Amino acid sequence: MNRYHKFFGLLVVTLVTACNKELLNTIPNDRISEEIYWQTDADVISGANAVYPYLDNDWNYVHWDAMSDIGHVTLTWRDESFIEKGAFDATLGRVANEWNTAFQGIQTANSFLMNVDKVTAKDPALIERLKAEVRALRGYLYVRLATLFGDVPLITVPLTLEESRAITKSPVSAVWDFISQELEEAAAVLPLTQNEKGRITKGAALALKARSMLYAGRYSDAAVAAKQVIDLNVYSLYPSYETLFGYAAENNQEIILDRQYVKDLQSNSIFYLTTPNSIFPQANSFVPTKQAVDAYEMTNGKSISDPSSGFDPEDPYTNRDPRLAYSIFTPGDVLPNDAVYDSKPGSGTADAIGHSENATSTGFNVRKYLNKEDMEQPGNGGINLILIRYADVLLMYAESKIEENQMDQSVLDAINQVRQRPDVNMPPITGLLSQDEMRKIVRNERLVELAFEGLRYFDIRRWRIAETVVPGIVYGMTYKDAGGELKTVAQTGFQKVFNKDRDYLWPIPQRETELNPNLSQNPKW
Amino acid sequence: MEIIYLHTETTHMKITNDKSNPIGSSTNTSVEKQGIKSGLLSILFFLLCFFSYAEHTRLEGFTGFQQQADITVKGIVSNGKGEPMVGVSIKLKGTNAGTFTNESGAYSLSVPGNGILIFSNVGFVTREVTIANRIAINLQLEVDDASLGEVVVVGYGTQKKVSLTGAVSQVKAADLVKRTTTNIQQALQGQVSGVTIMDEGAGPGQASMVLRVRGVTTLGNNEALVIVDGIEQRLADINPNDIESVSVLKDASSTAIYGSRAANGVVLITTKRANTGKVSVGYSGYYGIQRTNNNPEHMGLEDYMRMQNIAYTNSFGAPIYTEEYIQEYLNATDRLKYPLPNTWYDAVLHQAPQINNTLVLSGGNDVIKGRLSLRHLDQDGIIANSHSKITEMRLNTDYKVSKKIRVSADINYRLMNNLSPINESRVFERMQQTSQWTVPKYPDGTYGISSDGHSPLLYAEAAGTITTRNDLLMGNVKADWEILKGLKFSTQLAASMTFITKKDYNNSYEIRDYYNPEIITKSQPINSMWETREQSREYTINNLLTYVRDIKSHSIAVLGGYSQIQNTNTNLYAYRQSFYNNDIRSIDAGANDGTKNNAGSEAGFGLRSYFSRLNYAFKEKYLFEANARYDGSSRFLGDNRYSFFPSFSAGWRLSQENFWNKGKVSDFINELKLRASYGKTGNQAVGLYSGLVTLNSTNYSFGESPAPGYRQQTLANEDISWETTTQSDIGIDAQLLNNRISFSVDWYHKKTDDILLLLPVPGIVGLDPSYQNAGRMDNKGWEFIVETHNRIGEVGINANVNFSINDNLVKDLAGTGPYITGGLEDRNIVGEGYPYRGYWGYLTDGLFQTQEEVDGYPNYVPGTAPGDVKILDLNKDGIISPDDMTYLGRVFPRYTYGSNINVTYKGFTLNLLFQGTGGSKTRLGGAIFQMGVWGGFTHKLIANNYWTPENPNARFPRPVKFDTRNDDMIDRSLVDASYFRLKNIQLVYNIPSRLTKKIGIAGINVYVATTNLLTFASFNEWNLDPETIPGTRTERYPQTSVTTFGINAQF
């Protein structure tokens, strides 16, 4: 018996000593803790890199114009459709998302700027450059916040939870002041070109400043900044508008800032989001409206509404500004899969209006960025999305000079440079017209040159024309019906709404005002 | 794995070559046949074994049995008071021959004069009487106090049921195997009061069951702690046939001994062990056929086309079909060219077989004994590529090392092979959404692709598969040492390992148009695979010291214990694409270029606990119990790491008092106990490492090169700690009419404090919220159980009914909230004063009838017209806004009930299990409620019952196209979820042993059973199962109803 007891005693001892002192001190080894970070130059680089993903992504990019007068959101249950219908409120997901994402980016930038000096740098110049990049990116995020929400909290250091529950808004003018100064200081440090394509350059910071000052209505500052970009002599127009949005043109001389993508590694779904239904069913997110198509002039430079323009309603797409065909698929166009685009109701193709919920409801589809290379994997595109390009800077320069009423030949030159890109080759604007007429010209030029690049939504808001150009039912193509009558497609069941007393600013997200009583809601929301 | 590969091959062939399949036929025959074949083979194998065994024993049987002449025995059976007893069973020992006493207690039976008679009746001691050629045998039966000696498994031990002071429900093995189930949760459904189980369907091997003990306790993890033979385990991983008993611990008194993990209740499972004696061989097997319970009927062709025309007119101003086209379509006979709107249910779903074989060897002597069980379950799914196979083994052994030392060692190995289509939910989603007018399969085997590019049949059959291989190994060694009389030390060491290998394989394919093969209708040019390796190890140590002593009228039991759990798990994922073909499924065979990818993670946790229990009883009349547990968890930091969970309970057996037995009432109520308990338990359900500031990686690229980044993503909360649930319970247990009826009532109040909440933080802080201890939730409820044993003549009836009421209320969210989650279609609220996750949305008031009515009332969307749903402007501010939303009903049932009825007559046993819930609502979402808005499944119920100017009193609103204005989250989309169903019906026949003995079988019974045969629910009109989770219920793998033929044999 005794030996059993010994055996058993041994077992007990084994079990008891199995107790592990570190049992409750589990330290993760699949993630990095803050204590070991901020030591090397590499930490600084990856800390700065973490701010870049806050540049507009594919989804955001395409949906801005989808909510403007030149676009229509395909699926009526999407958040963006509710904005288009004016039937949204402070609880809408997209509203919260814009706010949260911007402040996440700002937190990342602030945390970088607060911690970066802990690092004893081997290459101090590198640190200074990255600081400037991060400040410019933070500026980019504040431009978005100021345009959408107006007065917002201006945060430049990481907040504690308690601080975030009590902080107050800064007047939008202070936000614009901040952006202006930050971008100018960043531009002073940043190089003309960067070895790594896609990093913020001096030109990008200045162009962003021009855009922000234009949005702020500070036209003289905008003109100066735009002129600074022009005078850098780094940028020029890419000769082909048609291929500007294709892979071969990535990082060309016209690009000032873009959101960079690489197939497989860091891919986008832009093809998927804009594709006609016949190429990829159940994917399309938005389509151009009649307003978009009608904005393109005849090749003689006249508007189609001008009786002397030679516009033929029965053959509406010939002799039009070539940018129409480069930007929008209209009936009869050849699609990337070599099929002919036939969106007429009852055409029998998957593009026929009414075919299914993702088929075009206007008879048009967006062509920009729809590259053949992405057909196989529409959700795995590597095409960079352009955020600021030189043509935009030229038009910003022209617009700010016109608004300043300082119209001179340089204004005409800027506009005509854009109009006379080799494969666009529209007749130049000659002779200086009245400020009103010039304003009309530059605004239409911005529409057709920059359509579906995420700028129209902000343009119609800062011009305060949204209330007139947005509301109403959605119109589309004009076609001959069975009886030979010309008929214009109208989605009678859908109403675009824009409330001028309210919608020029988005509401502060409901949760923000609930969690922080110091944040007042925007008027009428 | 062989079968899986074989199957892949056949599907692959089908895409390219198979021209023989008719339209829409189910094409999963290869797997079905394979499954049936292997099942039949194994049955054959078992039978061969048994016959060879039978061959051996038959001779003995013949020689050992001596026939003797029959005599007739008569007599009267009475109870202790001399009153005649009705329905007493009298049987000849070793046979099925027998009879019952009549109204005057008399019986008469023809038996061999040298036999033995067995007298039995529920609630009385069974007596065996040697006949010895007597012709008159009168007998008095004694009341059986043994039923009062019933032992219940509790935390770290057992207790006599009569001395129990906590709320514990126990289910015995026999009640768990009546219903054909593949998991134990299903088997428990309807059997335990206070436990709500919802069957949410899902494919073979992936059953999605919700088990809640006394309601929803917290906002996070509500899973009960499951302990199998002392070790934590998943309920889904246990073979129902191995279970001896299941105890559900519900109140704080019984659960507090499990401290920090016990707030949601504890389920204790004891597995079967061997008895001493000759090795017995048991076989049980069944063959079952599964059918879906969700079979909605599509609207007829003409009704559908005309409704679409109205919808298009309402949205675009013109119809889509001309009258000529409608006539052409209706009169067409070629349904390949003019397909019916939606035939997916017929094409995709099919009946599916399942086979289960269990073989048990059990026996041994006083020194060593063992029970070995082997099981093989082969379950096919109701769609293609849906299959599960479980092969498992459990060996429980016991060793008597010395008089004072006993050791037991158990091992359980389980292999589960699952097969499912890649993206299985897409199969069900696309049967519903936007896939109208499609031929599922053309005569040559070509898949028809819907105009929006989908085919659920293709998705099921050929889009790829997920193959999962899950190995589970549990080893458990336990030793008991009786140091002195009454003082026992017990130690246990267990290891549990899980190893999962998983391949998510997306096939490449190319589907061409049936009429014009030039056109590619759908293609997936690149095949790809994610391979997963998950490994988890958990080691548990339990050490217990117990001391039991009776001193005169005082009984004392003391328990002290230590326990620790250490868990680590590592995961590894690898991706490649562009494999040579879809059958090559080894990671190395994919393209070795920039597309390859990998990922991994590691985590671990530890738990250290000290606990003790004290029981004191005076004369088995006054009962006291105290429990305490001190728990430390690695999930928390610093001072928050350890927490203390005490509980107290007391009981009073009134029926032991002298005054009780003096009165007449004791004749009626022979046992009565009052009990009450109070205590605290915890919940540590918080993500690992929540207290640490960590940096997450981000991705960007410059030029063509990756540019990795790091940023803090989540706020860290160092102060995070346990959730604490405080529970009070008052209960009554009674036995009536000589134990013929037992009755139990419980009232409880459960308060959960410091609930771990992801309290929203202002967006401007720029970080995701982390868990904080805030919030409080209450559950109050009642539980009733009645159990009765009766005999009327030769018919025996046992029945039990359980009924529970649970009221759940969110009491406090630390001044925040309410939190409204979900969107247009689905919206729930977690807010103070509401039940957890109640429905939240708009109230409606019928349909707008006239344009004036529309103009005079705030509209939900611009362009509202007559026939649209009228959403109430609740706050009368002139606009429809979220401020008009309100509480619309509870998601979790308020009432849960079940009833088990067992009727025996001669060799037959009929078992009926009824089960139901009440007081909740369920949301009808997705295509089925949307009236063809997107061109999806449109229910027959809607036909000619939607608003038009001519049909203003219709039930459903006007149809509109591509617009969801009428089916957002409104009261109209909610349906009463109450149901009452015959969950299971089983008829068993015991083949008389005199027949089976001849072939060497000790006992055999055969049965037939069906689940979900009959359901009463207001949901029935939609032809959907009421148990599914709310929402787009039709887009999930549905519940099935199973009809089973089974056999149990003992050799």
Summarize the structure.
The complex is a heterodimer of chains A (525) and B (1051). By secondary structure, chain A is mainly alpha-helical.
How would you sum up this structure, described in words?
The complex is a heterodimer of chains A (525) and B (1051). Chain A has 19 helices and nine strands. Chain A has 525 residues and is mainly alpha-helical. The model of chain A has no long low-confidence stretch (mean pLDDT 92). Chain B has 1051 residues and is mostly beta strands. In chain B, 45% of the residues are buried. The chains are: A mainly alpha (525), B mainly beta (1051). At the A-B interface, α1, β1, α2, α5 and β9 of A face α6, β23, β26, β28 and β32 of B. β1 of chain A pairs antiparallel with β32 (694-698) of chain B.
Q: Which structural class matches the secondary elements of chain B?
A: mainly beta
Count of helical regions of chain A: 19
First-last Cα distance of chain A: 86 Å
Oligomer kind? heterodimer
Shape of chain B: globular
Helix content of chain A: 40-55%
What is the approximate shape of chain A?
A: globular
